[in-house]
Amino acid sequence: MAFLQAGLNLESQLIGGLNGIWFYRTTDTLATVLGAGYFALMGRSVKGSYGMQLDDEVRVLKTDDHTSQVMHVSAIDASGNVTVAADT
Question: What are the residue boundaries of the structural domains of the chain, listed by start?
Fold first, then answer.
């Protein structure tokens, strides 16, 4: 499947607009979510203050089997497509 913006919520944004904490609900595999540019057009260059930025935390819940993974924004391309990496 593809990224569905309806499953993504900004849970908190630290003072001064620093790193945010996002929560994303999906049936996609965690490997799919880790794909380059998965969060299409969600960078701040596209979404303004509501957009994702480097090092934001993303908590991903796979709703069909209840597995989860904490990730962080690792790259944002010029078009505003966001890539995440798994935290270790």
Answer: 5-86
3-state helix/strand/coil string of the chain: CCCCHHHEEEEEECHHHCCEEEEEEECCCHHHHCCCCCECCCEHHHHHHHCECCCCEEEEEECCCCEEEEEEEEEECCCCCEEEEECC
pLDDT in tens, 42-52: 999 999 878 99
CA gap 82, 38 in Å, rounded: 6
Token pair in block for residue 69: 């993974």
